Amino acid sequence: MSNISIERCPTGIEELDEILRGGFIRNSTVLIAGNPGTGKTIFAAKFIYEGVRKFKEPGVYLSFAESKKDFYMFMKNLGMDFEEIEKWNKFIFIEALTLADESAVERAIESLIDRVVEIKARRAVIDSITAITQVLNPARARALIHNTIVKGLKSYNVTTLLIADLPFGENKVGFGAEEFVVDGVIIFRMERVQELITRYMEIRKMRGIEIIDVEIPFAIIPNKGIQIMLMERPEVLISISDERITTGIEKLDELFRGGLRKGAQLLITGPSGSGKSVLIANIISNLITKNIRTMYVSFDEPPAHILSRIKLFREEINPSLIRIESINPTAYTCAEMTSRILTNINDYKPDLIIMDGLTTLTRTHNLCRLWYYIVNMFLKFKKLGITGIYAYTANYPKEPVPLDTLADAVLIIQYKYHEGIRRIFMSKNRLDPTSTKQLLMRLGENGKLELLEE
User: Mean pLDDT throughout 345-350?
Assistant: First the structure.
């Protein structure tokens, strides 16, 4: 039996195209439904914009909800310059804000088809069909959507997105028949926790692929539009390199049997004031001399404090070898924080990433939601061969540490505050035989650190 190749129409969002095996089926019709503010219009705009800019496919956007001026202004803030691509004669925006009766609807659809023919469009968006269902009776609306829009645009080899608004608390789209006449359905949802909004999309139906019964989180990012937080799903366990990164602290390297494995993920945990951040600063100061590019992400300290701590160990620092990002977790959703971190990684391409202040994250965000993103980042860093060091405040093992099962190695700092005694040891090392050594950790008044065998 011969294999039939299915031509795909990329959405322009790489992570979603990966899920869709390359994109929507060419010449299909996909329903994009969701509550107001969930990102439907941005998604559709991205589909058209990247179609023109990246894939050289002309597009037409018919809007019953937004003026051309407002649409262009809003999308430009998200990195999509529709005014520019309009000058290429590859894009047309049709503004049809007044739908008084059935004839107005028919004229708008006729105009859409005329513009499709005019520029030989391969992509089209109707935003939204909810406006049509509010003007026409149910039977006429179903006939128009099925015969004129779906079948009509397919005859011109156009891949079409139909946007539909879902009232809050409702699951049915329009008259309930729209889902049956299209090739795919993607539902957009959002969840509000205090003042932060987290958005998800759910692929409810898509011809040509297996249904993915899972919420796919995404963020709306300035100058980018939509970024999907796609969970890494390696078919096999990711192997860690035998190459070592020495910390520059002899006794610590002995615990790791010669240094950290490249691509390994290390968790350092201890109570507040135990010296986790000082230890990390010392490691960074040593790695800088070996031209190891380090990205430091903190959720509870400004960059100036972090840099001054590193300079306790090395005053001269090449700024190209360290990038410091401070993120206030109360100001961002998990998806937005993850997007910011991954964008920096793609831009800076570090060898080592430090994530400090993770305890603050677990106190400000839903742990189940947060877990999804942390697991994803662990797997992403491993896949890219980036070594990770994570600092978590806890009196381990009395207090639970959510990350200990994920980490390749766990370094414990015990701190007897009244005696001023700090001990450091490995509780886990799945990559090498776990060392049974315990080291005394001494911090001088100027922040200098010393590790000694007991």
Answer: 94
SS3 content of the chain, % helix, strand, coil (to 5): 35, 25, 40
* pLDDT greater than 80 at residue 4: no
Beta carbons of 327 and 340 less than 8 angstroms apart: yes
* SS3 of residue 422 by DSSP: strand
Give the whole-angstrom CA distance, residue 437 versus residue 344: 37
Rg (CA), the chain: 27
Q: Apex CA 414: angle with CA 412 and CA 416, to 5°?
A: 170
Beta strand ranges found along 330-386 (DSSP E): 352-356
Q: What angle do CA 166, 171, 175 make, to 5 degrees?
A: 75
- How long, in residues, is the chain? 454
For residue 325, the SS3 value is strand
Tokens of 19: 């899920």
Tokens representing residue 276 in the block:
């986790």
DSSP state of 162: E
**pLDDT one-digit tens code per residue, 365-417:** 877 778 778 888 888 898 889 999 999 998 877 887 777 888 899 999 999 88
Q: Counting Cβ atoms within 10 Å, is residue 316 exposed (0-12), middle (13-18) or buried (19+)? A: exposed
pLDDT of residue 168: 62
Which residue bears the tokens 């509550």? 35
348 Cβ neighbours under 8 A, 6+ residues apart: 293, 295, 323
| H or E element in which residue 135 lies | helix 129-135
Nearest to 108 by CA among 88, 85, 127: 127
The Cα-based distances of 64 to 67, 113, 160, 431 in angstroms read 8, 15, 16, 59
Buried b / exposed e over 155-188, threshold 16 CB at 10 Å, is eeebbbbbbbbbeeeeeebbeebbbebbbbbbbb
Does 62 have pLDDT greater than 90? yes
Cα–Cα nearest to 240, from 384, 434, 348: 384
DSSP per-residue codes, 246-262: --S-HHHHHHTTSSEET
CA–CA distance, 40 with 188 (Å, rounded to integer): 7
Token representation of residue 48: 């058209």
Q: Which domains does the chain have, with CATH numbers?
A: 8-228 (3.40.50.300), 234-453 (3.40.50.300)
Task: Let me know: does 362 contact 370? Beta carbons within 8 Å.
Answer: yes
Question: What is the distance between the terminal CA atoms of the chain, rounded to a whole angstrom?
Answer: 71
